[in-house]
Design a protein that fits this description.
This protein is an all-beta fold. It has no helices and seven strands. A hairpin with a 6-residue loop joins strand 1 and strand 2. It is globular. The two termini are 15 Å apart.
Length: 70
């Protein structure tokens, strides 16, 4: 089971991701509340979000066998 910690909760520059699960995360997608993908990258523990407009977003982190959405 994946255990992800994303912080800070309100972010304007860099989002930090801590993967404490046993699975291997491979991809990060950031989606608008309407479900439109606005960013995609390979998994990293920090994501530069300065190019995104202010608002609410979903983050989907996926691996070979499972995914996390937050």
């Amino acid at each position: 089971q994946q255990h992800m910690h994303l912080f800070p909760s309100l972010v304007s520059e860099t989002l930090f991701i801590q993967n404490s699960g046993k699975g291997k995360a491979e991809k990060i997608e950031i989606l608008t509340v309407e479900g439109r993908k606005v960013m995609e990258s390979g998994f990293t523990d920090n994501v530069d979000v300065q190019s995104l407009s202010a608002g609410y977003y979903f983050i989907r982190i996926s691996g070979k066998d499972d995914f996390f959405t937050g």
